[in-house]
Every structure is written in structure tokens, then in C-alpha cells.
Design goal:
Helix content: over 70%
Oligomer: single chain
Number of strands: 0
Structural class: mainly alpha
Largest sheet: none
Length: about 110
């Protein structure tokens, strides 16, 4: 296994935003701790997600034999893009449901 490059010693937004999904895909099952952390609403998952973001680059580097730092960075940027797409799709879904329920509510009254 190659030594962890110091240039990668930064916050991993993919691990923070998509925590357990990112973790399973990188074979870092410790990220499943997000589930019991939900016992403490809001604070628990947020604190655990910060931990994942801080440790994420090291975990991801260890999970695969990366050809280069550039390849690694591109792969990690994918996770942020995926989160953004899922976030936008989720917002659109919520807006559509709100409009649908508003229309449905106005029909019933």
C-alpha cells in the first residue's frame, strides 16, 4: 500500500455528505455508525459526519490502489456531484409533492 500523500490531508466532502453510502462503497463500514448516532437527533449524525469528513481522504486512499492523486481527487469530486444531484432531485420532489397536496387539499374543500 502506498503512503498517504500529505496533499490529501484535507476535509472529504463526499464522506461528510453521503456518509454511510460513501463508506460502504469505500469498504469503510465504520461509517455505518451514522445509524446509531441518530439516537441523538441532529447533533449525533452531524458530529459523526464531521469525523467522516476529517478521516475520509485517508480512508478512501487506503481503500483502493489509486494510480495518482489526480485520479483520487476526481473520484472524490464525483461524490460531491452525486450529492448535489440527489439534493436537487429531492428538492424538486418535495416541491412537486407540496404542489400536489395543495391542489388535492383545495379540491376537497
Amino acid at each position: 500500500m502506498k503512503e498517504f500523500p500529505e496533499v490529501l490531508n484535507k476535509f472529504n466532502w463526499g464522506a461528510f455528505l453521503l456518509n454511510w453510502i460513501w463508506g460502504v462503497m469505500h469498504k469503510k463500514y465504520v461509517t455505518l455508525w451514522i445509524l446509531p448516532a441518530a439516537i441523538i437527533p441532529v447533533i449525533g449524525p452531524f458530529v459523526v459526519s464531521i469525523w467522516f469528513g476529517i478521516a475520509g481522504n485517508r480512508w478512501a486512499w487506503e481503500s483502493k490502489d489509486w494510480a495518482s492523486v489526480e485520479e483520487f481527487n476526481e473520484a472524490q469530486k464525483f461524490w460531491v456531484r452525486l450529492w448535489l444531484v440527489l439534493f436537487i432531485v429531492g428538492i424538486i420532489f418535495v416541491i412537486k409533492m407540496f404542489v400536489f397536496l395543495s391542489i388535492l387539499g383545495s379540491i376537497e374543500t
